[in-house]
Amino acid sequence: MAKIDWKAEVEKRKDSLLSDLQGLLQISSVLDEREATKEAPFGKEVKKALDYMLALGTRDQFQTKNTGNVAGHLEMGKGKGLIGILGHVDVVPAGDGWSVAPFSGVVKDGRIYARGAIDDKGPTIAAYYGMRIVKELGLPLEKRVRLIIGTDEESDWRCVDHYFKVEEMPEMGFAPDADFPIIIAEKGIADFDLVQDTKDETRGQAPVTLVSFMSGLRYNMVPDHAKAILDIKEGNTEIIQMFEDFLDSQDLNGKYYVDSGYSIMELHGISAHGSEPDKGKNAGLLLANFLSTLELDPRGQEYVKAAVEFFFGDSHGRALGVAYQDDLSGELTINVGKLSYNEHEGGLFGLTMRYPVTFPIDEGMETIQRSSAKSGFRVGHYSNSNPHHVPEDSPLIQTLKAVYEEQTGQTAELLAIGGGTYARSLGSGVAFGALFPGRPDVAHQKDEYMELDDLWQATAIYAQAIYELAKKG
Length: 473
Fold this sequence. Notes:
This protein has helices spanning 6-12, 14-25, 44-59, 121-136, 158-166, 238-250, 283-291, 298-311, 361-373, 395-408, 452-470; strands spanning 63-67, 71-76, 82-88, 106-108, 111-113, 144-150, 172-175, 178-179, 182-186, 188-196, 208-215, 225-232, 253-259, 262-268, 325-326, 330-331, 333-342, 346-355, 377-385, 388-389, 414-417, 429-431, 434-435, 449-451. It is α+β, with helices and mostly antiparallel strands and 473 residues long. The strands form 6 sheets. It has an 8-stranded antiparallel beta sheet with strand order 13-14-12-11-17-18-10-19, covered by helices on one side. It has a 6-stranded mixed beta sheet with strand order 1-2-6-3-7-22, with helices on both faces. A 3-stranded antiparallel beta sheet has the order 4-5-24.
């Protein structure tokens, strides 16, 4: 058989690929359980995105299946063996500060902009077109290939949990939802709350009462906005100047105003993915750090003091006693994704801890429980996804490595990440693209985008990888 020019095959389909991607990006598929129904368990927009992908599959004559309205697949080929590709069509909230409409899919300056452009709609469409190219070329396959579509990846993974209870587990596969070249290790992910133990404390005569505090929407996002409502007793007008001086000294954007007799402080930071908290500026922690300099009521003071002592300037769990690293997967990180407090019920911190492959998670959580208890907190909600690792000498790794090196001319380095991808739901699976080395990671940030040249190249890589994994020997 003549050598296939995979890049040329992508070139022939660029217009339709881009159009199909824009259609998907224009769906605001953010989890919304307030409007959940049996037909749309995670909200109508999320279901709309799933239906969109299944409709593409039907249009292009793949075998399609909706699995419980929370997942689905598009399949081609015959045979006992099954290769799985796992993508997701749900996205995190857009947030504020975009220079373009976040669900427009606008193309400018060689990029396509939208929430989900790089995480994970762009890579999912690239993988879909990889399948489509192999199918349309009529290449002989020994195994079936299945693109599995999830809809709850950014939250609790209920989609793939349900899917693999009722559907076949692929023998191997990849998730186009992280970085190139190849990610062979993913840290464990523990999401949990530290909840303030409430006490019968009254406002007393404190100069300032923290009425409420709110920052952050998701465990896996660095909050880019924080708001505190304060009851400031008369004669404390210097606090206004202190806040303005703080903003200036830290080069931060924020504002102070009065509403219904209460003083309101708002502060803006920079969002980032929760697996790499140091790439953002946590608005909640920054505002808590300022509030810790005021004479607050006892409960409010305990809350902001804990925020500062446990987390401010420390994303590696040192103050909680769980700092850890290994050679395979690097350092443990903790992101404070949610901060909430009210004067009657106390507060909580919603955390995601990304821990190395060799970290003893049960011992670590016991340590966190003991450390936080000293400051009046306890572990509340807790969920855990164990680390994932595929040996370097596996056939999957070796095949993907050869494809990447042929397509790019670059060495396929083997990586470890703090993010969690669907690869860990497979017995033998890795994350494979679509962010190329040297590109900034703009997932979960405002003005999220994907370079069009990267989109085309990723599609060519996926097409060849699909063929090599499924072809007849």
